[in-house]
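Lay summary. Proteins are chains of building blocks that fold into shapes, and those shapes determine what they do. In this project we predict the shape from the chain. Here is one chain we studied, written as its sequence of building blocks.
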Amino acid sequence: MSIATKTLPALALLALLGGCVKFGSNPPPSLLTLDSAAQTPVGQVRSSGSSPTIVVDVPTVSQELAVQRVPVRATDTSIAYIKDAQWVEPPAQLFATLLGDTISARTGHVVLGSSQSAIVPGEELAGSLRDFGIDAASKEAVVTYDAALMHSSPQSVEKRRFQARVPVNTIDAADAGRALNQAANQVATQVADWIGK
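And here is the predicted shape, written in a compact code that computers can read:
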């Protein structure tokens, strides 16, 4: 029996199963992202020699937010996810980028990566993203961030909770994305103003 004769039935079986087996789900029509309302001008140069520096860590999250879907808190003990609402990357990463952009634009700080901070020590912003979804009872997008600002000289830590709530008309991907972007920008502005004080 030749190799072709042996593999032909296997290929036919795979072709038949191809219609039954599905790897992954269909992607939604579009993905959600965050867009910073505060922008640093293109071409502007900032130096750690003349401006304060800060590292913005990706916030920790609960399992509810460790996925790229948009949670809806139906009750205090139950969570669902909005159909066809999916982030382009994990919400914690998107929020950290938004924080960095907003802090840079509003305070003049040079935002460094963690590897660069070993060369130029400065402040470090860490924290926990507690809420980043929709509250069904109040029909609001809710973003809650527990921040910890660590100063290198003198060594100290400040902690503060920030929250923003933005109404949603309908609990769907488009309205949730718009409202969460607005709420995230409000929180990022509050954090930047706290750091820049």
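What the prediction tells us: The radius of gyration is 22 Å.
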